[in-house]
């Protein structure tokens, strides 16, 4: 078509939409590259200040630079000012660039049995996959949506609120903090049981709950490879206490047909299997650093 031009997806400075970002972990990881120098500078500054002197010259590393002939408080403020100007997005961009330069960021093109055998706990990988919230979260959101529509129309229905609470309690444990979500990175072409599961902090979501979906790129660290004969409850990923009793496991498995057969469940995209409830080999559990589109 005349005038149509596709963008260069590999172009530097391309548009990236972050859906999830663990800012604290990003800063902690960057400190491995830059933080040591900052602390060294502060320590030297304190030593000179105690002696009543000042440091001359310029000390810098990449984008971080502290000018000499500044007093202790001025120097600290200057360092903090430079750090604050580096937004969360630029921090993660810098970190990913450094990791790629060092070859410390692996890539998973497709999650296969061969990949499961090769990945090791502690390694960091990048992969493109479909975001899928755990079916329990999807079901609760669906039921709450029905309840809200009823309230908007002046038709209170406590049953729906009760159903949603019971489903949440079954997954999180009764009266527990619900600050985490269980999600899957559904890699294209992955065989059944090849789950990539993760715990997602709600506070780190950069989009509304409803927008946390679709195909995206995950950057995540392998935390656990589920070994032969192990059964890891997915609910363990969102509980402060990792204990999930056999009774609770059976109760959640018993809810699989109800979730699968919920009215309009298919239209809502709610699909659930026993592998969503109990993770088995060759599933892996990862810790996401960021999730983005672009």
Describe the structure.
With 294 residues, the chain is of the alpha+beta class. It folds into two domains: 23-104, no CATH class; 108-293, no CATH class. It has nine helices and eleven strands. It has helices at residues 23-50, 72-85, 88-102, 113-118, 135-152, 158-172, 246-254, 256-260, 274-277; strands spanning 17-21, 58-61, 64-67, 106-108, 124-133, 180-186, 196-201, 214-225, 232-233, 278-279, 284-293. The strands form three sheets. Strands 5-6-7-11-8 form a five-stranded mixed barrel. Helix 5 (135-152) packs antiparallel against helix 6.
List the helices and strands and how they pair.
Layout: E1 17-21, H1 23-50, E2 58-61, E3 64-67, H2 72-85, H3 88-102, E4 106-108, H4 113-118, E5 124-133, H5 135-152, H6 158-172, E6 180-186, E7 196-201, E8 214-225, E9 232-233, H7 246-254, H8 256-260, H9 274-277, E10 278-279, E11 284-293
Parallel strand pairs: 4-5, 7-11
Antiparallel strand pairs: 1-11, 2-3, 5-6, 5-8, 6-7, 8-11, 9-10
Q: What is the number of helical segments per DSSP (H or I, 4+ residues)?
A: 9
Arrangement of strands in the largest sheet:
5-6-7-11-8
- Rg (C-alpha, Å): 24 Å
Tell me, what's the shape? globular
- Give a quick account of the main beta sheet: strands, pairing sense, barrel closure: 5 strands, mixed, barrel
Distance between the termini: 24 Å
Would you count the extended β strands for me? 11
Overall structural domain count? 2
Q: β content, as a range?
A: 15-25%
SSE class? alpha+beta
In terms of per-residue confidence, which ranges show pLDDT below 50 for 5 or more consecutive residues? 53-68
The H/E string reads EHEEHHEHEHHEEEEHHHEE
Q: What share of the residues lie within helices?
A: 25-40%
Q: Determine the mean pLDDT.
A: 77
């Amino acid at each position: 078509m005349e005038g149509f031009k596709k963008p260069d997806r590999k172009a530097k400075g391309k548009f990236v939409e972050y859906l999830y970002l663990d800012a604290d972990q990003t800063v902690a990881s960057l400190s491995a590259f830059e933080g040591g120098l900052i602390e060294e500078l502060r320590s030297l500054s304190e030593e000179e200040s105690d002696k009543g002197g000042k440091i001359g010259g310029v000390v810098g590393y990449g984008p971080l630079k502290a000018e000499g002939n500044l007093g202790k408080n001025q120097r600290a403020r200057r360092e903090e000012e430079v750090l604050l100007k580096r937004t969360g997005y630029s921090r993660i961009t810098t970190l990913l660039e450094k990791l790629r330069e060092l070859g410390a960021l692996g890539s998973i093109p497709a999650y296969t049995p061969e990949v499961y055998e090769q990945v090791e706990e502690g390694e960091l990988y990048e992969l493109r996959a479909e975001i899928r919230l755990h079916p329990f979260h999807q079901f609760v959101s669906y039921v709450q949506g029905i309840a809200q529509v009823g309230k908007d129309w002046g038709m209170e229905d406590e049953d729906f609120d009760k159903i949603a609470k019971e489903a949440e309690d079954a997954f999180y444990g009764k009266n527990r903090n619900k600050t985490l979500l269980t999600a899957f990175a559904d890699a294209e072409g992955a065989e059944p049981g090849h789950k990539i599961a993760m715990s997602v902090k709600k506070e780190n979501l950069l989009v509304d709950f409803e927008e946390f979906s679709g195909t995206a790129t995950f950057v995540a660290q392998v935390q656990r490879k589920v070994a032969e004969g192990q059964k890891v409850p997915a609910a363990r990923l969102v509980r402060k206490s990792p204990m999930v009793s056999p009774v609770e496991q059976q109760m959640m498995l018993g809810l699989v047909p109800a979730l699968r057969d919920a009215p309009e469940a298919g239209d809502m995209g709610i699909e659930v299997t026993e592998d969503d409830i109990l993770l088995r080999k060759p599933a892996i559990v990862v810790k996401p650093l960021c999730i983005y589109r672009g």
